[in-house]
Amino acid sequence: MSKIAKKPVILKEGVNVVLEGRKAKVSGPKGELSFVIPAGIKIAVADGQIVVSQEKKNDRETNALFGLTRSILNNLVKGVTDGFEEKLELSGVGYRAQAAGDTLTMSLGFSHPVVVKVEQGITFAVNENIITISGIDKALVGNTAAKVRAIRPPEPYKGKGIKYVGERIRRKVGKAAKAVGGTVK
Q1: Which domain-ending residue is among 42, 58, 81?
Q2: Max Cα–Cα distance, the chain, nearest Å
């Protein structure tokens, strides 16, 4: 039995949850999100909180979905109240980014600028080689950040590329440094 799933999800001020069959719609100040509840899982909304439970106790299939469902519902509530954001850092000579409207244009050392179209519900902001990706859907924000990072992932020799803010890049020693530090026979 999941310890996470036993905790109720606390609904903040201004958040409404509507159950329509197996679908839960969460609306708040920043927008509206929905989630389809898996079979075998029940949710109840009462007293300003969401309680997740299993229809059959100790069922192998619903045990795997029990904590997941509670975490997703918690992320929906947090998304419509506070929102989510990921920050990416450009490191490299001449690497630049510009956010204009619904596109992100980046110069990453290729022969052409790279243009990324924004998806529905995502916003880009650029401030001194820091790209901030924000939105209300946690999965969509994380996937968009991963797609942008995959355009030019950081390389291990000089550390150039796009990385998450705070990400530590494992550096490798180059060929010239290995030759100098080699053993003599």
Answers
A1: 81
A2: 78
